[in-house]
Structures are given as C-alpha cells and as structure tokens.
Amino acid sequence: MTPRTFNSFCDSLPATSHVVQWGGADVWKVGGKVFAIGGWNDDGQAVTFKVSKLAFEILKEQEGLRPAPYLAARGMSWIQNYAKPGLNDKELKQYLRESHRIVSLGLPKKRQRELGLNQGEQ
Fold this sequence. Notes:
By secondary structure, the protein is an alpha+beta fold. It is about 35% helix and about 30% strand.
C-alpha cells in the first residue's frame, strides 16, 4: 500500500481527520482518537492499527506483522504491518476499517451520534 492509497482509504471512512505528527507519520483519527498510523521510509511502509484481543494474538505471530512499538508495550491491542509478506492491501483495508469501528465504538454515545457513527450497533 502506498502512502497515497493509505491516506485516500482512511479519508474515505466516516468522520475521520488527518494530522502529520510523530516524525512525519500520517495519523488518522475518528472523533479525535487515533485509529491508524502510516509511516514510510527507505525500508518501506509501516502501518499500525487497533485490533481485537483475539486478532492481536493471531496477527502478532504472522511474518511481517508485530505488536506495535510503544502501543502494544503498554498493553494495548495494536498491530504493525511493517514488512513482507505481512498483509496484502485488501486485508490491510479490512483491518483499517475494523480499527476505525473499534475506536469509534469507544467514543461517548453522544459523540458517536454527533458524528453519525454506529447508529445500528449496540
């Protein structure tokens, strides 16, 4: 996934905002809370996203994926796709979509309603 594809996809999700921080990383938020971080350097991409506890246990064992530096060390369920083979673009988009959903469900109900999020979910 290229930086342009990553940013375009994250921008297509509802109620998102984008900032560049932490050394030039593309940081995507929903309701002010981070759901995805994209960083690129000479070695390629590193995309970080929130997952369920079960997905965390499964994904952290896959080649090209690891517990996200800093976040996972603090007990949070975040994965970083940092090397090949890792996830393909289709899989990565599914996990980014799910990260957006998980983070948005953590927002106060009033804020979710204001943003038009999760109206059919309980």
